[in-house]
Structures are given as C-alpha cells and as structure tokens.
Design brief:
The structure holds two protein chains of two kinds.
Chain A lengths: L1 H18 L4 H42 L2 H16 L2 H14 L1 H6 L3 H5 L1 H26 L4 H8 L4 H31 L11 H12 L3 H28 L1 H5 L2
Chain B lengths: L1 H6 L8 H33 L4 H16 L2 H23 L9 H27 L2 H9 L4 H31 L11 H12 L2 H30 L11
Helix pairs in contact in B: 2-3, 2-5, 2-8, 3-5, 4-5, 5-7, 6-7, 7-9, 8-9
Classes of the chains: A mainly alpha, B mainly alpha.
Chain lengths: ~250, ~240
C-alpha cells in the first residue's frame, strides 16, 4: 500500500522534474544516492560543529584567563588552524595517520583513523574549534569588566561566573558569527569528498564521472544553496528570538 | 630527521624545488585572481546599491549563489561546465572538435566569482560609510557621477574596506589549495606528488601547512602597513593615528 503511494508520488515527482527540463532518468538512477549524500553531509557538519564547540569553550577561556603560556598555546592552535587550508589539514590527518599505522594499531586507535569519514570529522572538529574559539573570545572580551566584578561581589566563584554570567552573554554577542561559521562548515564539508567520503559532493562527483552529465553539478548546487539558505533563515529567527531583550532595550 | 631534510633539498633527489615551484604557482593564482575578484566585487556592490530594483536583485542573487556554493563545486562547474560548453560551441563550428579548458584560467574564474561575492559585501558596507554629503558636494563642484565615485568616494572607501578585504585575501590564499583537485600543479598538488613518491605524508603536508602559514603571516604584516598608511590622515582618540 505505502509502496504504491510512494511510487506514484515518485513517478509524479520525476514527471514534474522532467517538465522543468531536468533529466528524470538521471534522477531515478542517482536520486537515492543524493539523499544519502545529504545525510552524510549533515552528519559531518553536525558532529564536527558540536564537538568543535566543546573544544572551543576551553580554548576561548584559555585565551582570556590563561597565563602567559596557556594563552599563547591556545593562540598558536587557532592561528595554525585558521592560517592553513582545510584541504591541507585533512590530508595531514588522513594520509598522515596512514603513515603511523603501526603506532596507531599499538595504542588501539587504528580503527578510528582507518575510516575516511572519521578522519574528516576529526579534522573539521579541530578546524571549526579554532574559528569558534575566536568568536567566543571576542564575545567574552566585549563584555564590560563590571560583569565579572559584579558576579564576584555576589559571591560566585569563577566557574559559576562563567556559566551563569559571562558565557550566556558571550554567546549572545557571538550568535551571528557562529551562524556564519555553521554555513561555512556546510560548504567546507565538501572537502571530505576528496578523501573518498561520499557526502553530497562525493556522490555528485561519482554521478558525474559515470554519466558525464553536467546536470548533476547543478542539482548539487541547488541542494547546497537550499541547505545554506535554510540555515541562514532559521538562524535569523533564532537570533531575533534569543536576543529579543537586546532589541527591546534600544 | 636528516633524511627528511634531505628530501626537501633542491635538485634531483630533493623535492625542494618542486614544492617551491608549486608555492610560486599558488601565489600567481592568488595574485591573478585578486584584481578580477575585487573588480567583480566592486561591480556587484554598485549593482546592489543601484536605484533599479532589477539590478539590485541581480546583485543580491549573485552574492547568494556564489557565497552559498562550496568553492569546490563552483570550481567544478566552471571547469567541467566550461569544457562542455566550449566543446559544444566548437562542435557547431567544426565537426568533432574538442576544446580543453585551461585549468589555471578555470581556477582564476571560479576563485574570482567567490571572491567577488564575498568582497561585494565589504565594498557595499564601505560605500555606505561614505556620507551622502560627499557625493552631493562632488556633484556641486561639477564632477560627473563617475568622477565623483573615482575621485571622492573610492579613496575614502578604501580605508574602511581594507580590513575586510585583507580578510578576503586570506581566505582566497587558502581557497587556492582547492584547484589542486583539477590538476593544477600548485603547492598542494606538488606536495601530494612528493608524498606519492616518498611515502612521507605527515612531513610533507606539514611543510605545505608551514608555507601557507608563512604566506598568511607575510600578508598580515603587509596589510597592517597598508592599513596604517590608509589611516594616516585620521586622528583617533589617544592621539595615535
């Protein structure tokens, strides 16, 4: 029953696409793969942005509160990852790990680096952590010193001060650039296709190499634009909602 | 350790000269893209500031598309799309003719489109920072619209736009690495070739990263000079320009 419904829907969709001048035959052959590719792209971005944020928090705090060497180390980290191409970083991790296969097997980590997807996630996480830490540092440093003094006067310790007072405000300041970073990661995740990950870009390249039909690249373009624009719009709504107290105070 | 350094030597046994050549090509690519990209950016910014609704919409569409697409995809569309398009055109003229699109040119075009989209936002913001009175005064002095833009608005726009543009340049420098995927012998690809032969990926990719990092550091030094120069007529609170 459901199958019949879906196949009618599918056939109708293909007919519609055909009317728009799209190659329905191509769509029926690669459509499912494209859906899979979108999912892999979302996974890549979701996992690395989440863990990137977890890593960015201590990095940003180290930049602001750390002693001479801690703050310098955090700075060096973010300078390296922001100053070199993501493609080079990805190759460094993926092919570099292959070189240290024996050592990695010895410490029981080879299973992780064997998979190109994991290498891509690891590289993207390290990369986006550097960018996100800069955004958060900017947010923290934009706050007046009275915020932490006030928290101290109320008897909050430094951990409480950060969790209750500083970080929420820093996130409010950094919300827009964080949204931009998310969009940049969706785009940058296409680099994973170069190390054999079948994300949206990967399946597109595969479909092109088999069909030699330019149309697949145009599909990919539309799909990426839809993803990016959706994130942008949703983020705008989110920002207006979360920062509504700031809007009112003007 | 000594062996690794030997691999970097110039000459038949080392990869130093190959990598240096690649680094040079990376710089060439970025420098060739810069004027084209900024020209597109300025044009698109003017379009987005235009009085005509249609022109504004076209400018916004351009930015939305080329800022939203992954750079890699733009590159493939320009490269393969150009190839197919030109071959088709040539096919009409001469039976069975094929045309190879020059990879360097495809790289410059794709990167220029991306740079144009990003820099147009910077130019637009800078254009809006130049007050209306400046343009009105220029027209009161009898300057034409184009003269007013070139002689009055552009010099002032430059100062405001410089930090944003320097950011665009840094991004461009890193994005050039993507052209290695369509077989241009830039720094990234030369490094990959060296890796293929020597089986020392970690070392060589680290070297490539260091070279990119060096380019970034040198550019940021250059840009801070340029910014100091652009701001020399401007007094800030605290006395320092």
């Amino acid at each position: 029953m459901m199958d019949a419904v879906f196949s009618t829907l599918g056939a109708g969709f293909l007919a519609l696409m055909g009317l728009l001048g799209l190659n329905a035959d191509l769509m029926s052959r690669y459509g499912e793969r494209f859906l899979g590719g979108i999912w892999v792209t979302l996974e890549l971005v979701g996992i690395s942005v989440f863990f990137g944020l977890l890593l960015a928090l201590p990095l940003a705090i180290a930049r602001v509160e750390g002693g001479r060497w801690t703050s310098r180390a955090a700075f060096a980290y973010s300078y390296f990852f922001r100053g070199t191409p993501l493609l080079a970083q990805t190759f460094l991790v993926y092919y570099g790990a292959g070189q240290f296969r024996e050592q990695l097997t010895d410490i029981g980590l080879w299973w992780f680096f064997r998979d190109a997807f994991n290498c891509a996630v690891l590289t993207f996480t390290l990369n986006t952590a550097a960018y996100q830490s800069e955004i958060l540092r900017g947010g923290i440093q934009s706050l007046p010193v009275g915020q932490s003094e006030g928290a101290k006067a109320l008897g909050l310790n430094s951990v409480q001060t950060y969790i209750k007072v500083i970080l929420p405000q820093a996130f409010a300041v950094g919300l827009r650039p964080l949204g931009n970073e998310l969009v940049l990661m969706v785009k940058a995740s296409s680099i994973a296709s170069v190390i054999t990950v079948y994300d949206l870009m990967g399946v597109t390249r595969l479909a092109f190499s088999r069909s030699y039909d330019m149309e697949v690249y145009l599909w990919a373009a539309v799909l990426y634009l839809v993803m990016v624009e959706t994130i942008r719009r949703v983020w705008d709504v989110l920002e207006r909602r979360l920062n509504r107290h700031l809007l009112l105070s003007h | 350790m000594l062996n690794l350094l030997e691999l970097l030597s110039f000459g038949p046994n080392g990869w130093g000269d190959e990598i240096a050549k690649g680094a040079l090509l990376t710089l060439e690519l970025a420098i060739a893209t810069l004027p084209v990209g900024f020209a597109i950016g300025l044009g698109v910014a003017l379009a987005k500031d235009s009085g005509s609704r249609l022109v504004r919409a076209a400018g916004n569409l351009f930015t939305t598309v080329f800022r939203g697409l992954p750079e890699l995809l733009t590159l493939f569309i320009v490269y393969y799309g150009g190839q197919i398009l030109f071959t088709r055109i040539a096919g009409y003229l001469v039976e069975g003719a094929t045309i190879e699109v020059n990879q360097f040119l495809a790289g410059v075009i794709a990167l220029s489109l991306v740079l144009g989209a990003f820099s147009s936002e910077v130019f637009l913001a800078a254009m809006r920072s130049v007050s209306r009175g400046q343009k009105e005064a220029a027209s009161a002095l009898g300057l034409s619209k184009w003269q007013a833009f070139r002689l009055v608005v552009l010099p002032q726009l430059w100062r405001v736009a410089l930090p944003g543009l320097s950011n665009n340049w840094m991004v461009l420098l890193k994005d050039t690495s993507l052209v290695s995927v369509i077989a241009i012998n830039d720094l990234m690809r030369q490094t990959s070739i060296a890796v293929g032969v020597t089986k020392q990926p970690f070392f060589f990719y680290l070297v490539a990263c260091t070279i990119y990092l060096l380019f970034s550091i040198l550019s940021s030094v250059g840009f801070s000079y340029a910014e100091a120069r652009a701001n020399r007529g401007l007094k800030r609170i605290g006395g320092k320009a």
